[in-house]
Amino acid sequence: MDINxxxxxxxxxxxxxxxxxxxxxxxxxxALTKAIQKTEEELxxxxxxxxxxxxxxxxxxxxxxxxxxxxxNIQRTLTREMQDIAQGKNGRIVVGIPRExxxxxxxxxxxxxxxxxxxxxIIIKEGTSQYFEExxxxxxxxxxxxSLPVYSEELDYQIVCDDPILLVVPQEHPLSRKLGxxxxxxxxxxxxxxxxxxxxxxxxxxPEQGMCRTAQELFIRHGIQPQIRMRLRGNETAYRLATAGxxxxxxxxxxxxxTEPVSPPRFATLDQPLFCRKIIIAHGKGDCxxxxxxxLVDLTVERVRTVPELSPPLPxxxxxxxxLFPQL
Length: 328
Fold this sequence. Notes:
The strands form three sheets. Strands 3, 4, 5, 6, 7, 10, 11 and 12 form an eight-stranded mixed β-sheet that branches. A two-stranded antiparallel sheet has the order 1-2. By secondary structure, it is of the alpha/beta class. The protein is built from 13 helices and twelve strands. Helix content is 44%, strand content 20%.
């Protein structure tokens, strides 16, 4: 069976569109269509329902794609093992991590890892949660650091830590004036009823990023119908714009601790206890990570959970005890 044609059909099944799949695969649309037809002729079954958009798999197509994914996982594992034998090392590890988190985490992880695994080539890719998921599904990345929710059922993950989320209220906002001196510290946020912000102006990140998914989850959770003033690509930029009065925003506690505000905001929460997004390490479902890749995952988890700089400055239980309940 043709490995390339397996990859082609998996890509079409994932995108639901011949044209989009052809662009991703750097093929012409006629060449991709011909490859699918040839596979169907060899198998004697139709793999796709031709009268639907997006394209849907037939029952035979579903079974074919399921088994092809297993075959490709075995092929990747075999390739890694052969590289180990041929090179006396584990080849390369490709890791995805958001820029801001990589800036904070990697100096505490990679120096020690490279000392104990000097023959391993590590490639760091920065990007968004959506980009990481796509690269994992294509087999172009070993694992990534991301956050829940994960939109693909074809990925496995393990939870690394909790990431508390705060609501940032600009200094000149009417709510900020009502709070007075309360909520000046991100370690002592004020509890606000969601009804007070249900139609407010917000800043968010762009849709392909994990923090945008988290904000959307909070909007739905609390029945907020925000007016979105701007979508940005970085938490730090969005935070500074929020503190300059551009709008409210949800942001990780860690961003507020390491980023200088333009004007001191008030910090709040709509949840008690604090809402926390889950930071995860994700990889392809069924993928057999190499031993050295597993070593890097284990070291990352250990450092995040033990290095003070990588964890909230106070235990989550203490942060929850320090939530303020102002009289509004």
